[in-house]
Prior knowledge:
By secondary structure, this protein is α+β, with helices and mostly antiparallel strands. It has helices at about 15-25, 30-40, 75-80, 85-110, 120-160, 165-175, 185-190, 210-215, 240-255; strands at about 5-10, 10-15, 55-60, 65-70, 165, 215-225, 230-240.
Amino acid sequence: MNNLTIIKQNNKYLVESREVAELIEKDHNQLLRSIRSYISALKQSAKLHTDDFFIESTYKNENNQKYPCYLLTKKGCDMVANKMTGEKGIIFTAIYVTKFEEMEQELKEQLKCSYMIEDPIKRAECWIKEQKENQLKIQEKDKVIQLQQPKVLFADAVSSSDNSILIGELAKLLRQNGIDTGQNRLFDWLRDNGYLIKRKGEDYNTPTQKSVDLGVIETKEGTRVHPDGHTSITKTPKITGKGQIYFINKFKKHNQISMLG
């Protein structure tokens, strides 16, 4: 074996210890013991990070059994090579240095902008390719945003859920999250769907038992002074923090924009 397979992981180029062991004609278990001794030594310095050299990993054999291995960075390969002498060490060094340089050059070519190419035809072809790749990246980014939207909405709701709010304020919050509604339409919907009492009377527009059990709407009592001097008790329904999250996610999840129209 005179080759190495480069693995890209978390923006690092790595080689697996089994391939290194085969290349240097060393038993894999012996190489693992050596790597573990290197790691033990590296840990003695607070300025050094073992992951810059060796990354612990596993592999499965033909019977699907899991075994330990390591992924080596270029620095890790340097350390292994520095402990070797003779022809094997020279060949190993030549192979891994060449392979890592090839990967670095390939990366540079990928990052090379179209305007740096002298040939006008190749420059145009590269520019077209870049535009297509950029468009695909934008499309992928849009997909990610769409997939994350429920989580974003949830987080937005949480940020405003410390205190209960009026139903009119919930309507504004819903509009900010793409639900076209207003205070009156939201009141109607809450009554029609069993969250507020619908029948006329003293308890009109107060939370139903369903809302109380869910913890989404509460009643705030106040005192109103009338022009003739007498006072009366007022009952105002307010959406709890839990309710803000509940209703926003409910409308968004079920795409219930039209039901408020």
